[in-house]
Automatic annotation (TrEMBL), chain A:
Lineage: Bacteria, Pseudomonadati, Pseudomonadota, Alphaproteobacteria, Hyphomicrobiales
Protein name: Spermidine/putrescine ABC transporter permease
Species per Swiss-Prot/TrEMBL record: Mesorhizobium mediterraneum
Any single GO CC term annotated in Swiss-Prot or TrEMBL for this entry: plasma membrane
GO biological process: transmembrane transport
SUPFAM superfamilies for the chain: MetI-like (SSF161098)
TrEMBL record, chain B:
Domain ABC transporter: 5-235
Swiss-Prot/TrEMBL keywords: ATP-binding, Nucleotide-binding, Transport
Protein name per UniProt: Polyamine ABC transporter ATP-binding protein
GO function term, MF aspect, one: transmembrane transporter activity
GO annotation, cellular component aspect: ATP-binding cassette (ABC) transporter complex
Gene3D superfamilies hit by this protein: 2.40.50.100, Nucleic acid-binding proteins, P-loop containing nucleotide triphosphate hydrolases
Organism field: Mesorhizobium mediterraneum
Length: 271, 332
């Protein structure tokens, strides 16, 4: 007998749940609506009129394109760096035993547990100590610290589920290290890497705190938005960009969710 | 004749643990060789040394006369059937079996044909399109076997391949492996902790304990003429008799062994035998196993079903044919 399906939830609980969901999502909806408002200096409710002109305005603003392009490039490179480093690290931690293995595992995960402001200050002082000028690469470095964690976590979980004797079986059947990686390891961790990579991309794309410490004068998209909120002109442009950001980050996260769910089924069917 | 596999003073140490300790053995080409021993006795490490997953700490290994130290697993003409089968979950059965040929660069049509043949050999024709996850344990076992055999190895290594199967399936598989080995003529090296399996399948058995080979011989040798107390006890639970006891019957002060089925149970105080007391009886179907206490020495006897048995606690007289008392190499 399943009690959860047969009995309706009490009304109070339903109302509370609805309120919770509204509280979480109504502000996002509000952002979307303000993207269509005719009032450009401040946000007033209800919007005095609706228009789609801000999409065209946004399209023609070069600063938006610069920020967007910087963000996409940073996210792509950070994700690529994280994929390589995170996978290698996960393979080492889950496949071999060595002195300090648990410590390394903890140290890899630490950047995501630390407040971003600590990571940011630490990186900034490290950069100034080493006299490294702020550049595209300092942002990538900052983002890679937490992107690696996401990839690592996904890869480590998948490595633990794949049988170690599969690699030995591949070698036994005549495959060298590279062939084994290409034909056995990669197909088994591919979905985990894709999921980890997408999460890493999304995290990097809307990161603000670490970026403010490592970007110098450059503007990634989230930082551009923060600056834009202070200025009293063409406000709805920010909202249009916000909509794009929501879509760009939400889609990979949804895809990652579905991919790892399927991945579980694949890994489970081998048992 | 060049041995299929030859170990000369081979040791493999893991830190201070001597997993394999000064092992010498020669495996004859075309034989069914079993490595028998309790868990942790070094038998699986020996198998991994032949496969190339482990390298010896000292000593030398040769496979068909070629030195094997430093040769990686993928350059050895040896294939393994793993204990957990280690099938690739992302490939279907046919591609699993064809894997070895695929990495060697054999064309798709040719390798699929060879894989189909290997699947017929293990009586799984037409299963190629399935995923390993859709097969039963026994079927996965056969796929693992086909995947190893398709490469036509000179030596096939089997790491407790029947361990995960239920009793009935295991018995069938034992017969099948044996006849497959006869038909193919490939050297099989089989690791097991099940003495019955080793005795019934192998041409020769090596008994391992604590990283050392205790005895190598035919199943009959091992069973009838154990050299050490360990072998006598581990292979078929023989009665191990202390030197003082053995001296009374053989005149020699050495450890001896006596098979449980060699002991006859008689009435107390009749004839000259060993006075004992029946401690317990254990009904096993075809036979009954008796635990006896002969003045502090615990003995076991096996009598056929239907024999008239004394009651538990009753005094009995044990007799045995002196020829059945086997003297072991171990001195007292």
């Amino acid at each position: 007998m399943r009690s959860d399906g047969s009995q309706p939830a009490p009304l109070g609980l339903k109302v509370a749940a609805a309120c919770g969901l509204l509280f979480l999502h109504l502000p996002i909806l509000l952002i979307f609506i303000y993207a269509f408002t005719t009032e450009e200096k401040s946000f007033v409710w209800p919007p005095p009129g609706l228009t789609t002109q801000w999409f065209a305005v946004t399209w023609n603003r070069p600063d938006v394109w610069q920020a967007l392009s910087l963000s996409v490039r940073v996210a792509a490179i950070s994700t690529a760096v994280a994929l390589v480093l995170g996978t290698l690290c996960a393979a080492a931690v889950s496949r071999t035993r060595f002195f300090g293995r648990e410590t390394i595992s903890l140290l890899v995960i630490l950047p995501i547990a630390l407040p971003g402001i600590i990571t940011g200050i630490a990186l900034r002082s490290a950069f100034s100590l080493a006299e490294i000028p702020f550049s595209f690469w300092t942002i990538v470095l900052g983002h890679a610290t937490f992107c690696v964690v996401v990839v690592y976590n996904n890869a480590v979980a998948r490595f633990r589920r794949t049988s170690g004797s599969m690699i030995e079986a591949s070698m036994d059947l005549g495959a060298d290290g590279f062939q084994t990686f290409r034909h056995v390891v990669l197909p088994n961790i591919a979905t985990a890497l894709l999921a980890g990579g997408m999460l890493a991309f999304a995290l990097s794309f809307d990161e603000v705190i670490v970026t403010t410490f490592t970007a110098g004068q450059q503007q990634t998209l989230p930082i551009w938005m923060l600056e834009e909120l202070i200025r009293p002109r063409q406000r709805p442009v920010t909202n249009v960009v916000a909509m794009v950001v929501v879509l760009v980050t939400l889609l990979p996260i949804l895809a990652a969710y579905y991919l790892t769910r399927d991945g579980d089924q694949i890994a489970g069917s081998g048992k | 004749m060049t041995p299929a596999v030859s170990f000369a003073k081979v040791s493999r140490h893991f830190g201070s643990v001597r997993a394999v300790d000064m092992v010498d053995l020669d495996i004859v080409p075309g034989e069914f060789f079993a490595m028998l021993g309790p868990s942790g006795s070094g038998k699986t490490t020996c198998l991994r040394l032949i496969a190339g997953f482990e390298q010896p700490t000292s000593g030398s290994i040769s496979i068909f006369g070629e030195r094997a130290e430093g040769v990686p697993p993928y350059r050895r003409n040896v294939n393994t059937v793993f204990q957990d089968y280690a099938l690739f979950p992302h490939l279907n059965v046919l591609d699993n079996v064809a894997y070895g040929l695929m990495v060697k660069g054999v064309g798709k049509a040719e390798r699929h044909k060879a894989a189909e043949e290997a699947l017929s050999l293990v009586r799984l024709p037409g299963y190629g399109a399935r995923r390993p996850g859709q097969l039963s344990g026994g079927q996965r076992q056969r796929v693992a076997l086909a995947r190893a055999l398709v490469n036509q190895p000179k030596v096939l290594l089997l790491d407790e391949p029947l361990g995960a199967l239920d009793l009935k399936l295991r018995e069938n598989m034992q017969e099948e492996l044996k006849s497959l080995q006869k038909a193919l003529g490939i050297t099989f090296v089989f690791v097991t902790h099940d003495q019955g399996e080793a005795l019934s399948m192998a041409d020769r058995v090596a008994v391992f304990n604590d990283g050392k080979v205790m005895q190598i011989g035919t199943p009959e040798d091992i069973y009838q003429r154990p050299k050490t107390r360990f072998v006598a006890d581990f292979v078929g639970s023989s009665n191990v008799l202390p030197p003082d006891f053995v001296q009374r019957y053989s005149g020699q002060h050495r450890w001896g062994s006596l098979r449980p089925e060699s002991i006859r149970i008689g009435r107390a105080a009749k004839g000259d035998g060993v006075a004992a007391r029946l401690v317990s009886t254990n009904y096993l179907g075809a036979t009954t196993r008796l635990a006896l206490d002969a003045d502090g020495l615990r003995l076991h006897a096996i009598v056929p079903a239907g024999a008239k048995l004394p009651r538990e606690g009753e005094a009995v007289m044990l007799t045995f044919n002196r020829e059945h008392l086997h003297l072991m190499d171990e001195p007292g």
